[in-house]
Write a structure and sequence with these properties.
Blueprint (H helix, E strand, L loop, with lengths): L12 H7 L13 H12 L5 E5 L13 H7 L7 E6 L13 E3 L13 E7 L10 H11 E12 L4 H8 L5 H8 L18 H7 L5 E7 L11 H13 L7 E7 L3
Parallel strand pairs: 1-2, 1-4, 2-3, 4-5
Antiparallel strand pairs: 5-7, 6-7
Length: 259
């Protein structure tokens, strides 16, 4: 459910260094959404934290040739007391980073008691939730969070370039379309998109006051273009520079449950 392009989907190192020269210093760019998101997630956890990976999938990041810094950031399970996961896809039971894994229905109960977790991570998951399921999903996330705990989510902006483009392609054609942009991406890592939790307004409605909702838009490297040409990447960079902030491609979502 939550599998997404990783930094390994960027062009080869020579092209990356040409497009983003700063990548030579540490292996990541100033536009790296993976780094932006997981640095902030790491700031929310400590050695005593209990963390739920909502939409954990098969743990795609563990099998990709990530740069060492990306891998250290993502290996949250090595730095917290408890790291468990749920997903609608049975492959979650084979995710090696999870101490415990459960398969759930799309709008099913999260099989943990109330107030179990300090942080719930949902990385490229919210866009797959259907409109009729969104209230239940939000309610379950809030239920299992401890008071003062955080939902940390990264998801496409419904009104961003990725969101508009994805909604323009019928779900049944997504696999074929992404095969062209990202050769070698497995069909099992492509999921239907719904975009019912992908605007600031929807998030404020689903996680109402007194919960604290923090959302900001972000323009990462255009990883959805996969190993495409340098010209395509430069065109995407230009579009991002000209795009107003509310329409940037990605939303970084942080919801703090009311105490």
């Amino acid at each position: 459910m939550g599998e997404q392009p990783t930094p390994s989907d960027l062009p080869d190192d020579g092209l990356r260094a040409d497009l983003y020269p700063e990548v030579k210093a540490g292996g990541y760019t100033r536009r790296d959404g993976f780094v932006d998101f997981y640095q902030r997630v790491n700031a929310l956890v400590d050695a005593d934290s209990e963390v739920l990976d909502f939409g954990a999938g098969r743990g795609l990041w563990q099998f990709e040739p990530l740069a060492p810094y990306h891998r250290r950031l993502r290996a949250i399970h090595e730095r917290v007391r408890r790291y468990v996961g749920v997903d609608v896809d049975p492959v979650v039971v084979d995710n090696p980073s999870l101490a415990e894994a459960h398969v759930i229905e799309p709008a099913g109960d999260i099989p943990f008691p109330d107030e179990s977790f300090d942080v719930v991570i949902a990385d490229y998951v919210l866009e797959h939730v259907a409109a009729e399921d969104a209230p239940k999903v939000a309610g379950e996330v809030l239920r299992v969070l401890k008071p003062g705990g955080w939902l940390a989510a990264r998801t496409p902006n419904k009104w961003g370039m990725i969101g508009i483009g994805a909604r323009a392609v019928p779900n049944e054609l997504h696999t074929r379309f992404l095969e062209r942009l990202q050769p070698g991406r497995k069909a099992e890592d492509v999921f239907p998109v719904r975009y019912s939790m992908n605007t600031r307004r929807d998030l404020a409605r689903l996680f109402p006051w007194p919960n604290d909702v923090v959302v900001y838009a972000h323009a990462s490297e255009p990883v959805y273009f996969g190993q495409s040409s340098k010209a395509a990447w430069r065109a995407a960079q230009l579009v991002d520079r000209l795009t107003p902030s509310p329409m940037l491609p990605t939303l970084m979502v942080f919801v703090r449950k009311a105490r």
